[in-house]
Specification:
single chain, alpha+beta, 3 domains, ten-stranded mixed beta sheet, two-stranded antiparallel ribbon, 12 strands, about 25% strand, elongated
Length: about 425
Amino acid sequence: MADAIVTIGKDKLAAMLNGTIRALAKRGLFAKKLDVVLDATDDEATPRYKTDDGREVPHVVREKRPDVRANRHAKKIEVRVWGWKVWVVWEAHAKVPLAIVIDDINAPDNLHAHAALRQAQANIKDYATIRSVALDRGFLDGKLLSAIEADGIRIYIPAKSTMLITREAREIARRAEAEAKRGRTLDGCVFRERHEKVRRGAGKNAREETLTTTLVGVADLPCDWWNEEGSTSKANARSYEPKRLRATVVLRWDGAPREAEKEVVILTTDPSEDPFVAFDAYDDRSLIENGCNREAKEHWFLEHHPKRSEAGVRVHAYFVFLCMALVAGFRADKAKSDEAEHRGQETGITRYRRRLEAQNRDKVAVFIGDHFGIFRSYEFAILVGVTVRDRALAGETAATVLRRFGVDVPDTS
C-alpha cells in the first residue's frame, strides 16, 4: 500500500483535499463568516530521506530545548532540523483544515501564506467567506499583509519587540494607563480591564482566584512598511503617507506578572474600538497549536511517514489533514442527528428507509423475459386495460403512457 500511495501526484492530492473541504462546505458544516488561523508547522524527517529530484533533504538550524523531561526549563541549544513545512488554514470552530500547502522546511513562513488563504477561500466559495485571520510574528511582511487586506480579510498579528511601532504603542499604552488611574482618558486610546474568576485546586484545597487582563487600544499608529511594496526608501520622503493601524497593547494577561519588554502588541485592521475584540481574536491563534498542529503530530502521527521520501511526507500530510476534516464533518453531522433524535425525529438509516419507501410506494416493477420496466401503479393499470377514472378524466391513455417512456405510438384519434 505504501508503494502505491506515494505515486499519487501533487495535483491529485490537492484536488482530493480541496474537493473534500468544498463538499463539507456544501453540507453546511461552516458558518457564513469564518475567523480562521494561519500557521506553518514543521514536518520533520531525517537526512536519509529521498527527495523528488535527488537533492539534499531540506534543513534549517533552530534553537530547541534538549529532550530532558526532568528539566523543562533547560537552556535551548542550536540543532539542525531536517524535513518539510506545512502551511495550514485552520477553522477552529469546526476544527477543520480549510487548505494546506507543503514546501521545504527552510522556506520562509510568508512564502505560501497568501496562496493557502486564497485556496481556503476557493474551497468554501458560495457557502462561506473568510472574515478574519490571526497570524503569528513569522508572517510580519508588509507585502503579504497588504495583499491579505486587499482580499477584504481582517488581520490580527503581534508586532516584534524590536519594531518602532511596538515601542511607540507600549509608551502610549503606559501613558493611557496612568491617565486611567487618575480618572481621565488619553486621546486616541481606550483603556479596558477584564476580571475572570477561576477555580484552583480540588476538595479542601480548592480556592477561587480572580485573573485580570489589562488592555489599551491605540488608534492611528503610523506604519511605513505595511504596503504593497513592503519596506521601501519611499517612506523617507516628506510626501509619504504611512498606513494607519490600530494596536492592542496587553499590559497584563490573565494576572501574569508585568514585564515591560514582554507586553504583546497586536496590530489589526479591525475597525472596532474595543481592544478585547483584537485580543480575543488573536488569543484564538493558540487553538491551531493544540487543536491542529499538536493533534496532527501526536494523535494522527503526521511525522510517521509511510516511506522515507519527499513523496511519503507529502501524501501522508494530505491524508492526515483529509482524515481530520472528515472526522470533524462526521462528528458535526452525528451531533445534529443526536439532537434530532432527542427531539423525537427519526434519523439515520431508519429515516433513509422511510423516505425511500415513500418515494417508491406507488411503483411496480414488470419483468418480461430479460427486460423490465418500472411504472407507477396507475400507469401499469392503464397499460393492462384497466380504466383509472381520475387519470382518464385528465386525458391519460395507454398511448400517452407509452409516449412518455419514449415509445413511438401512432395517433389513433
